[in-house]
């Protein structure tokens, strides 16, 4: 596997708005949605549009500077931590926690000729705050949906 070297891109201009998006995401472990990031940037740059924020997030993602996480079926969430890790989402409030996972995960067998490029591990559960409010039997099991 080849590591992607940091390619200097002159096309990516560091505007104050982009710097603010990066500042908001730096060390942020709450996995904010584009809307939440927009609200944060909007406080400092009231004239910025949601499209600008969203496009900036997409270009940062393409540059490998953040992850776009699809664990939340309602909306994409963004993560400045690009090191391999898994996510655990509360099915009640949408809180996403980082969890450790083995660095190398391999499928147990795969169709001939297939090359595995990446792997995504998602867990669903109920956070302690919601567990206090909810009936315990509602806790969703990892990757298992029961029908009623
Ligand atoms: Zn919760
Ligand atoms: Zn994360």
Q: What is the beta-strand fraction?
A: 5-15%
Task: List cofactors, ions and other ligands.
Answer: zinc ion
Biggest sheet, strands in spatial order?
Answer: 4-3-5
- Looking at this structure, what is the CATH superfamily of the largest domain? Winged helix-like DNA-binding domain superfamily/Winged helix DNA-binding domain
Helix content bin: 25-40%
Q: Gyration radius, to the nearest Å?
A: 18 Å
Mean pLDDT: 84
Oligomer: single chain
Q: Which structural class fits the helix and strand makeup?
A: alpha+beta
What is the end-to-end distance? 45 Å
Sheet with the most strands? 3 strands, mixed
Tally of helical segments: 4
Described by the principal axes of the CA atoms, the overall outline is globular
Number of domains: 2
Name the helix and strand elements from N-terminus to C-terminus, one letter apiece: HHHEEEEEH
Q: Would you state the CATH class of the largest domain?
A: Mainly Alpha
User: Which segments are poorly predicted (pLDDT under 50) over 5 or more consecutive residues?
Assistant: 138-148
Total beta-strand segments: 5
CATH architecture of the largest domain: Orthogonal Bundle
């Amino acid at each position: 596997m080849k590591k992607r070297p940091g390619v200097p891109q002159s096309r990516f201009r560091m505007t104050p708005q982009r710097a603010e998006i990066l500042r908001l995401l730096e060390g942020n472990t709450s996995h904010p949605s584009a809307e939440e990031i927009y609200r944060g940037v909007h406080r400092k740059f009231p004239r910025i549009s949601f499209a600008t924020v969203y496009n900036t997030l997409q270009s940062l993602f393409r540059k490998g500077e953040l992850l776009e996480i699809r664990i939340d079926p309602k909306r994409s969430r963004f993560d400045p931590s690009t090191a391999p890790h898994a996510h655990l989402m509360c099915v009640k409030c949408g809180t996403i926690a980082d969890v450790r996972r083995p660095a190398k995960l391999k499928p147990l067998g795969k169709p001939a000729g297939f090359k595995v490029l990446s792997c995504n591990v998602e867990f669903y559960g109920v956070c302690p705050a919601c567990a206090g409010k909810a009936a315990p039997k509602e806790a969703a099991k990892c990757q298992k949906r029961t029908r009623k």
